[in-house]
Amino acid sequence: MSSHTIDAIVGIDFAAAGRQLGHLAVVHSDNEHDDAVIPVPIAVLSGPAEGPTVLLTAGTHGDEYEGQVLLHELIRELDPARVRGRIIVLPSLNLPAVREGRRVSAVDRANLNRALPGDAEGGPTAQIAHIIEGVLLPMADFVLDIHSGGSVNEYVPSAFVYSGPTETDWSRKVAAVEAFGQPYCVIVSPDFVSGSISGAADRAGVTMISTELAGRGTINRRVLTDARAGLYRLLAHVGVIAPPSGTDDAGPHRGIDPEADAVAGPGITYLELGPRSAVMARAAGLFEPSVDLGQPVAVGDLIGRIHFIEELGRPWQEYHAHMDGLVGTLRHPTLVQTGTTLVNIVVPLESSSRLES
Question: DSSP letters along 329-354, please?
Answer without folding.
Answer: EEE-SSEE-TT-EEEEEEEE-SS-PP
